[in-house]
Write a structure and sequence with these properties.
The protein is an alpha+beta fold. It has 4 helices and 5 strands. A hairpin with a 2-residue loop joins strand 4 and strand 5.
Length: 158
Amino acid sequence: MHMSPFAIVMLVILAVMIVVLIVLTILGKRAEKKQQEQQAQIEAAKQFYSMLIIDKKRMRLKDAGLPQAVLDQTPKLLRGSKLPIVKAKIGPQIMSFICDEKIFDRVPVKKEVKAGVSGIYITEVKGLHGKVQVEEKKKSFWKNLVAKAQEKAGAKPI
């Protein structure tokens, strides 16, 4: 039985793709397990502080005013990436914190809040006086277009 060169090439490509899929699945499960362990450590070390939020913005790690020890421990690839940084006053001290991406938009500026802090990482924000208001951020053209298309299709917005 003689196979054509095209069929042999396709079988090799299929085999390689299956191997890559298996490797990615294994690596994904390991990364997920590692992330769950880190999340558990963050939750265990979390404390609540009353703080006045001075400013919040996305900025590079080296421009954020974080302690040098934090910069030294950060992988080189992540040093240039922009992170959600919150400047807050706890008592007499003004500090910079890294905010959780999920709650960054809900952090009010120039308001006093009760925040769950683990090290220099803000994981949770609750309003101290009243509710925390979400600032409606203007959507970009493409996000607006996608939202309209999803609305027409009857899908949930992202």
